[in-house]
Amino acid sequence: LAGWNATDRRYAGPELLHELVAAQVRATPDVVAVSAGDGPLTYAELDRRANRLANLLQARGVGVDHLVAVCLPRDLGLPVAQFAALKAGAAYVPIDPGLPHARLSFMFADAAPTVVVTTSELAPSLPYHPGMLVLDDPEVRAELTAAAETAPSVSVHPDNLAYLIYTSGSTGKPKAVALPHRGIVNLVHWHCETFGVTPADRASLVAGLGFDAATWELWPYLAAGGRVCLPPEDVRLSAEPLQRWLVDQGVTMAFLPTPMAEQALRLDWPAECALRVLLTGGAALRRHPPAGLPFTLINNYGPTEASVAVTSGAVPAVDAVPALNVSVPPSLGGPIGNARLYVLDEVMAPVPVGVAGELFVGGPGLARGYWGRPGLTAERFVPDPFGSLPTSKGGRLYRTGDRVRWLPDGTLEFLGRLDDQVKLRGFRIELGEIEAVLL
Questions:
Q1: What is the pTM of this model?
Q2: Beta-sheet strand order (sheet of 311-314)
Q3: What is the spatial distance between Cα 111 and Cα 102, in angstroms, rounded to a whole number?
């Protein structure tokens, strides 16, 4: 209970997400930060473009803890807009432009963003919003050109919001998870330290734009001076074209949602491949990697409500697993830095190692709660009864609804859900949402 939760880490450096990247801008201004089909962007160019947009956002009324919806294609404008929203003191709301119109209408009304950042190609298909900011509109372009290239003045605290992610809800409507800087910054520091991320690394941004894993694919590498490569939309959806793209781009670290990762493990990988770490998560991993792959497979687990990931662990290759255990799915790994994990029974008492229980999560990664849903927040984010432990700071725990058990080595085995939630290509779907529509 205490030993496996002795995960306390002290990370040096900025405590705000955009300040982590700004520090890298000062260190390596001429290094390429992002590359996509519309060209490369250096750290200095990323910063200048984000500053101009941040100043324009402030002029449009954006401030601390305001929301900026970002509905853009997978190109250079995407990280610029998200970086700009943070620089303006706001939180960004990633919006997948491929969502149905009714879903978009609900999200716009529910989040009530101050500004919606989009393009002239996407704007006609979006619901009406009075704060629409069309980046390639001639008037907006002129305003951006005239805007200051220095960062706007704003006072942000680690507990202020960094981003808002929508996920499925059992009532028939999606729910938004409100996440502060503190959680994603902890994940960035842990990730860079654990995987030794350097400016020589190249990462990919493959996950769907409304999937919280996309935040994990972007910010650690920009904070470490690496390059983030954005694949074309048609490439990221199929394993073989994606593999060729990863190899051609010289990507060294990639995240693939579990179903895509399992397909990728079946492919032949060239020995000269630059990929050194393949991260996966979003659904239960059912297979071990074959022997001889040029990279290490890392299985990860975490709910959106806990800043993307709370466990992580390397998955041994088939030849390293005893023959009788090959059919046993890989574990979820152990807790990441500063995460606290408890496997509890119906009365929130700890269960022994090897006994199934519900997973409760604590630590700095926890969300504030659900946007505009205080009742649901109180139901899922509960008081921490283990505040007296040396490894616990008290506060709250998030009840995941996931059924797990501790393994003797301090890792977790996933056993299923306690409710009707399912995963489809890594996306959470509450079956109650479908039932509500049908009824």
A1: 0.94
A2: 39-42, 32-36, 227-229, 202-204, 253-257, 277-281, 296-301, 311-314, 334-335
A3: 14
Half-sphere exposure of 320 (CA within 13 A, CB side): 12
Of 336, 359, 315, which Cα lies nearest the Cα of 220? 336
Interstrand relation of 227-229 and 32-36 (parallel, antiparallel or unpaired):
parallel
Give dist(CA 112, CA 135) in Å, integer.
20
Closest CA to 45 of 275, 244, 227: 227
SS3 401: strand
Contact 342, 420 (CB under 8 A): no
How many angstroms separate the CA atoms of 231 and 214, rounded? 13
pLDDT at 285 over 80: yes
Q: Can you list the alpha helix ranges (DSSP code H) found in 195-294?
A: 213-224, 239-249, 258-264
Alpha helices in 36-180 (DSSP H): 43-59, 77-87, 101-111, 138-146
Residue pLDDT, tens place only, 42-69: 999 999 999 999 999 999 999 999 999 9
pLDDT tens digits for 378-398? 999 999 998 766 656 668 999
